[in-house]
Amino acid sequence: MPVETIFLVALFAISMVGSPGPANMALMASGARYGYSRSVPFLFGTLSGFLLVGIGVAAGVGTLFANFPALRYTFLVFSAAYILFLAYKIAFQSTKPGEKKIEPRYLAGCIVHPLNPKAWVMLVAAFSQFMDPTGAQIVQTMIILTVFTVTGLTLNSLWVFAGSLLTRFVSSPIVLQTINRTLAILMIIVVAVAMLRSGILG
């Protein structure tokens, strides 16, 4: 894969991975509630889940969705249900100081991207735009996924860190609850937009 193409992949990854989405909203909420270090397992879980999506796209799951519309719509329904559940947890999680907090786990993070329409849309777009049909498919797949993984580790970490800063500068439970509910609303909006564009999967 030419260097200029890799550069374009990186720019695309930065614009997509860094923008608000279910994973980033959940990561920011986790950072706000548990701090950066205690959110690391959840962060690595989301990165692992993203890799699973990338492998699925490379293996032709997008084509499977195209050939079986019922399967695609079923996936979208489950995705919507999970994202709504995640948004609900973020919106109504307790912000009272001293209350026992169950830290987000690695496996919880793994689920986020496989049920995140935005992740599927961005990866299908990346593979369709930057893969050369005449080139080595495995090598190109590894390059694209590596670029997205490095970008994700960097930008997703910043979202967690931004969330952790909230607890340092904002002490009011009411303000924190307002922030959480704003994150939840943004999550729902982004997923709704991704679903409207989900034709890219088919």
How is this fold's topology laid out?
Elements: H1 3-17, H2 22-34, H3 36-58, H4 61-67, H5 69-92, H6 106-112, H7 117-130, H8 137-169, H9 173-196
Helix pairs in contact: 1-8, 2-3, 2-8, 2-9, 3-6, 3-7, 3-8, 4-5, 5-9
Q: Your description of this structure?
A:
With 202 residues, this protein is an all-alpha fold. The protein has one domain (3-201). Helix content is 79%, strand content 0%. It contains 9 helices and no strands. Helix 1 (3-17) packs parallel to helix 8 and helix 4 packs across helix 5. The protein starts with a helix and ends in a 6-residue tail after the last helix.
Task: Give the structure's gist in a few sentences.
The protein is mainly alpha-helical and 202 residues long. Helix content is 79%, strand content 0%.
Domain unit count = 1
Structural class: mainly alpha
Helix content: over 70%
Q: What's the average pLDDT? A: 79
Keywords:
202 residues; mainly alpha; 79% helix
